[in-house]
Design goal:
7 helices; 5-stranded antiparallel sheet; about 25% helix; 3-stranded antiparallel sheet; 3 domains; single chain; Phenylalanyl-tRNA Synthetase, Chain B, domain 1; 12 strands; about 250 residues; OB fold (Dihydrolipoamide Acetyltransferase, E2P); alpha+beta
Length: about 250
Amino acid sequence: MKFTLSWLKEHLETEASLDALVEALTRIGLEVEGVENPGEKLAAFKVAKVLSAAPHPQADKLQVLSVDAGDGPLQVVCGAPNARAGLVGVFGMPGAVVPANGMVLKVAAIRGVESNGMMCSTRELELGDDHDGIIELPADAPVGAPYPDYAGLNDPVIDVAITPNRQDCMGVRGIARDLAAAGLGTLTPLAEDVDFRALAETYEVSGGDIRNAVLKAAMAAACEPGGDAYPRGVLHVLRDTAAAQGRR
């Protein structure tokens, strides 16, 4: 199962570091198969604005751009058809490594014109398959900001192996509960308690199989916004309903 650190913290109030959380998961029997921060490989890429665009003197399909990535204008040769003055996109400085092909960007002459980096497409950054043009960000995107921070990509993804006997941890709520029990923080209260008895009545428990009806009610509760992935009241509803029908 994979979940982001920010998602976990929606259910767990904690000041613990990522390393401490990973160590605790392993200690309580949830094997961590890997941790990946998708923003790390994009750390060298910034939000940048195209100040001007002019035809390349030696190539019809290229343009010479003036690009501001927060430290003043830089000259960049670009072949993207949507490159134009005023566009805000993602810029790779010399020294940045393009994730899609491992190329290290450097100052180079392209058809006789110096280019200081690259305006990037989604495919080049491995953020999608689009390669028809460079990324276009909202006009108010903060020029000079690290792109991973702006895009919310600096959010580690934790991959945990769930064994068949730990179905209570098939949801991030259950994992947060175990971490809280291990002393790594406090379980965040749900928005409101789920009324399992009302849900059981909705599914007409008295007219069918008690166990299946209650499990259906529990599943419905888990799918509701703020629902608990491992409802606490299921067994109580099952017991009470069975007693009311004279069953054990």
